[in-house]
Amino acid sequence: MIRVTGLSHRIGASTILHDLDLTLPRGKLVALIGPNGAGKSTLLRLIARLEPLQQGRIQIDGLDLATTPSARLALAMAVMGQQARIASRLRVGELVGFGRWPHHHGRPRAADHQAVDQALDAFGLTPLRHRFLDEISGGQAQRAHLAMTFAQGTDWLLLDEPLNNLDMAHARALMARLADLVRGSGRSVVTVIHEVNYAAAWADHVVAMKDGRIVAEGAPATVLTEPVLSALYDTPIEVARHDGRPLVLHHHRHDDLDAPCPGPATETRLALH
Questions:
Q1: How many whole angstroms separate alpha carbon 203 and alpha carbon 178?
Q2: What is the pLDDT of residues 246-268, one digit of tens each?
Q3: Percent of residues, the chain, with pLDDT higher than 70
Q4: 3-state secondary structure of 252
Q5: How far apart are CA 40 and CA 212, in angstroms?
């Protein structure tokens, strides 16, 4: 499990996280949700040790982030941040192969090549294996970075908004792939998700954050409720059920907006199963 104790973080004079205590379970797909500025990505980056720990303690399966060597952590967790498009002459297969570095340190073996092949196949990238990164789309590059993280073969995958740049079909396929990974191998995924219906459809455990604090956590049916979500996003939200899972209904009523809006109220219903 990942155990977070007394975690606070500041950027300049602004407090981003306020004394968080949190336990993320093993063998689950964990979704971090909340409005912009809630502290989701900051929390993930601190767990991934991409940001220096200022106050508090973080442990991953008993490993203390403050004292564990990076080489050891690289065998326990793989991290994908919010990627910028890489314009280089690096090929897709080469990028994915970097995920095996903690295992072979520059001397890949048959098992490493096999892991790269499996990662390329899992994310539909085998036909693009020899393409340069500056020759593929943003969504394809996003999948290549995900494949690199997957190829690392760690018990924990930490993903910061992995659905960015993905169309509906690939976003759904990715969430299904992550869910299958968790349920089939016992690996653990922690991901920041912007669209709550992906969390509703696929997550096992949801952590809702706002203003640097934990508002609610638990199973989707417990967290994704009308009172919690309406308060979390400061807008009226309805929740229905679909295939035994919550289905979040986003409403925009003209009387909720600052400026008058002609026409009837509109409603968007997203079924992402």
A1: 9
A2: 999 975 554 444 444 434 333 33
A3: 89
A4: strand
A5: 8
Give 159-174 pLDDT, tens digit per residue.
999 988 788 988 898 8
Average pLDDT over the chain reads 87
CA–CA gap between residue 202 and residue 245 (Å, rounded): 9
Mean pLDDT along residues 139-160: 90
Helix 138-151, helix 110-122: angle, nearest 10: 140
Task: Give the Cα separation of 145 and 162 in Å (integer).
Answer: 9
Instruction: List helix spans (H) across 91-235.
Output: 92-97, 101-104, 110-122, 138-151, 168-185, 196-202, 220-223, 226-233
Rg from Cα positions in the chain: 20
DSSP state, residue 164: T
Report how far residue 99's alpha carbon sits from residue 122's, in angstroms, rounded to the nearest whole number.
14
Cα 98 to Cα 1: distance, rounded to the nearest angstrom? 26
Helix pair 168-185, 138-151: axis angle to 10 deg: 10
Structural tokens at position 16: 């981003």
